[in-house]
Amino acid sequence: MTLTLTPLPDIPLIFAGDDLPTIILGSLERLGLDLQEGDLLVIGQKIVSKAEGRLVNLVSVVPSNRAIELATETEKDPRMLELVLRESKSVLRTRPGTIIVEHRLGFICANAGIDHSNVAGEANDEEEWVLLLPENPDRSADCVRQRLEEASGVRLGVLIIDSHGRAWRMGTVGVAIGVAGLPALLDLRGHPDLFGYHLRITQVGVADELAAAASLVMGQAAEGTPIVHVRGFPYPLREASLGELLRPADQDLFR
Amino acid sequence: MTLTLTPLPDIPLIFAGDDLPTIILGSLERLGLDLQEGDLLVIGQKIVSKAEGRLVNLVSVVPSNRAIELATETEKDPRMLELVLRESKSVLRTRPGTIIVEHRLGFICANAGIDHSNVAGEANDEEEWVLLLPENPDRSADCVRQRLEEASGVRLGVLIIDSHGRAWRMGTVGVAIGVAGLPALLDLRGHPDLFGYHLRITQVGVADELAAAASLVMGQAAEGTPIVHVRGFPYPLREASLGELLRPADQDLFR
């Protein structure tokens, strides 16, 4: 079966309090696209964060001693690092220009996912606004899913994604940070392959694979679109959460 | 623009010497799909390796002292570890059941990408055959691309992919191991975003994002299909190679 990923056109700039399900349904209608059983929506985290009012003005942030220390190590703004610390469980690595943390949500990423770019601030203090990740992306995804399921009468999945850098490889890729209604990790253990062997690969990060696919069509720059409709996901929908994709520290050789 | 990924049907079992371009063209014809300018083909590494005769019978492998040592650490077959060492530049991590190496091709992966499963051997010694990665996946991808371009008269890209585990996250995802004709790393540095800021994200691993997308539709088990046709890749084709995606060791905080 063919997998199709369609970026939704004409998504407006999003502000705190905006209702994403309404915006999604409006765009689907303009596109002439009816939601069908098993369809998925993939949403970039920035518009979820904006709708949830996760903008912070750095002017309001007083850095702790630890943040000031890290600012020296990383050559970054101490107020930014204060927010990174508040959003993190632990700091994994620092060097000039880089801070890698375990986010309070459990994944490893740079800057705790806090973002300077694409934030609507005042023209004369635009550098002061930053955007935190959604409070609880699984819950955000589930809220959107429930609203879209009510409106359409069909079973759907919703994924919230961000772009993360990686160990060993250059370039960011889209990854899941919130999951509702579709498997995050697919467990193939015990399935025989064509020759009856046990498979080498036993667990597949299907939500991350979908996140990467959607990220590809979202783009990153001015022409990007933050919502992608997906049809043809090849696995049955089920209840799930991001936790499936988080490797426990004691099973992680690279922390 | 919509991105569509279509697994090619009826791909036969592949044996050494089989001609993948002929097989791909036959499947496209049965599907009624004409190649168009900018289309891509994504191919799972196993069938490329098989066509190139990269099967090795472990019975023929004499393990070195180092392989025997690693076999104790990892609780794996010393002959398998001998092949892993031959295919690797260095060993990054070992523990029971796991060996992570820098492959001679430059990427980090488990078992040097050597695979027990899905290998056609004799019924009574099936556990003895293993499959190495293609000798030079960039070159393999380019050979397929040239043949398909000659047959179709249009410009195409070809990606060879494998599934790799990751630091920090559970589950494998599809990643590029050979690239021909499409960008591997997309450089957005200097592009302003919607508000004229410089982007936080400056380099995107688009070939890895496409690999993940294709992996999703290939599946992993008996019902899987190892070749995916892609239409609607949103970036201009250009000459490229896997090297773009390999993070130099001195820029890698996680080795």
Folded structure, characterized:
2 copies of one chain form a homodimer. Chain A has helices spanning 20-31, 45-51, 65-74, 78-86, 137-152, 206-218; strands at residues 3-7, 40-44, 55-57, 88-95, 98-103, 108-110, 129-131, 157-164, 173-180, 186-187, 203-204, 227-231. With 255 residues, the first copy, chain A, is α+β, with helices and mostly antiparallel strands. Chain A has a 5-stranded mixed β-sheet with strand order 1-12-2-8-9. In chain A, strands 4-5-6 form a 3-stranded antiparallel β-sheet. A two-stranded antiparallel ribbon of chain A has the order 3-7. In chain A, strand 5 and strand 6 form a beta hairpin. The first copy, chain A, is globular. Chain A folds into 2 domains: 4-51 and 136-240, 60s Ribosomal Protein L30, Chain: A (2-Layer Sandwich); 55-131, Alpha-Beta Complex (CofE-like fold), CATH 3.90.1660.10. The interface between A and B is large, with 75 and 75 residues. Strand 1 (3-7) of chain A pairs antiparallel with strand 1 of chain B.
Short description:
The structure is a homodimer of 255-residue chains. Chain A is of the alpha+beta class. Chain A has helices spanning 20-31, 45-51, 65-74, 78-86, 137-152, 206-218, and strands spanning 3-7, 40-44, 55-57, 88-95, 98-103, 108-110, 129-131, 157-164, 173-180, 186-187, 203-204, 227-231.
